[in-house]
Write a structure and sequence with these properties.
It is a single chain. By secondary structure, this protein is an alpha+beta fold. It has seven helices and 16 strands. The protein has one domain: Clam (outer membrane lipoprotein receptor (LolB), chain A), CATH 2.50.20. It has a twelve-stranded mixed beta sheet. Strands 8-9 form a two-stranded antiparallel sheet. A hairpin with a 2-residue loop joins strand 2 and strand 3.
Length: about 300
């Protein structure tokens, strides 16, 4: 009986020894694989993701400096409201009061020097001498006389508006196709630049496609239009019969080689005296007052300081 019990115990021990030794042999490969995979994952370089940063509300590009560089050398313009037609060659400008029929320009001005000369007309040397107190002049000798007036302000041209905003950044840009109707002319436009200030004021420049100048300027306040300025603009002038055209030249805007400058008092005295005898000639004093109003400062119009 004891032998049987001893034999049974030996079999149990033998079986347990086999189990203990076999268990590691089955799990060993699994451990080895796991360790190797972990090592491989650790050896991998971290993946770098390309992040594209999208910036919103980027400032709009201002095309005005390029437009200014491409301006024609000579051009003319006038605003619909005041009818002062200005011929421009470089910096010099010459104006003509369109409601008066004259064969010469009535005013010439320069935005750099702030000088404005209004044409008085041809006067005799005798009349000039009488006004100035000596009375010895000849009635056959004549002079071209101008009156000088102060330039407090003047009607901005399309180019003046461009120069004002050439260094600014447009708040918005409108590229919708539209037709701008100015008096008897139609301008096609596909560019409007909107400039805004913090105080609510703003300006919309609506550009003509041909000349790339704003033929319509809208002054706004908090988005609402408070003033609309319309311009006629071209590079050629017409003759008296409106049949032929010619380019704006330097000679059209220059002062004559010889001229005299009347004071306003001398001009008024000349008109009141017996020296102003041409009934067909427009009264230069009336013209002077009209032109002075154009160049006088008024609310909403910047002074001529630039």
């Amino acid at each position: 009986m004891k032998k049987i019990l001893v034999l049974a115990m030996m079999l149990i021990l033998l079986t347990s020894c086999i189990v203990v030794e076999e268990a590691p042999s089955e799990e060993e490969p699994v451990k080895e694989v796991v360790v190797k995979e972990v090592v491989k994952e650790a050896e991998k370089e971290p993946e770098v993701k390309q992040v594209i940063k999208i910036e919103k509300n980027l400032p709009l590009e201002n095309p005005i400096p390029a437009f200014l560089d491409a301006l024609p050398e000579g051009y003319w313009y006038y605003t619909v409201n005041n009818k002062i037609e200005a011929k421009v060659f470089n910096d010099w400008r010459a104006s003509m009061w369109r409601e008066v029929s004259r064969k010469w320009d009535l005013a010439k001005w320069n935005p750099e020097t702030k000088e404005v000369y209004v044409l008085f007309g041809e006067i005799s040397d005798y009349g000039l001498s009488k006004v100035r107190g000596n009375g010895t002049g000849s009635i056959d000798e004549t002079h071209m006389a101008y009156m000088k007036i102060p330039m407090e302000a003047y009607p901005y041209s399309p180019v003046d508006w461009m120069e004002m905003f050439s260094n600014g950044v447009p708040a918005k840009k409108d590229t919708a196709e539209q037709v701008l109707h100015v008096e008897d002319r139609y301008y096609s436009s596909n560019l409007s630049l909107i400039f805004e200030k913090e105080n609510g004021e703003g300006v919309i420049l609506r550009f003509d496609n041909k000349y790339r100048v704003p033929v319509v300027v809208e002054r706004t306040f908090e988005g609402a239009t408070v003033e609309r300025i319309q311009y006629k603009f071209d590079t050629v002038v017409y003759d008296d019969l409106n049949k032929r055209t010619k380019q704006i030249t330097k000679e059209m805007v220059e002062m004559p080689e010889e001229f005299i400058v009347f004071t306003e008092e001398e001009a008024r005295a000349y008109v009141k005296g017996e020296y102003f005898r041409d009934p067909l000639q427009v009264n230069p004093i009336i013209v002077l007052e009209q032109v002075k109003q154009v160049f006088a400062y008024r609310e909403g119009m910047p002074k001529a300081t630039y």
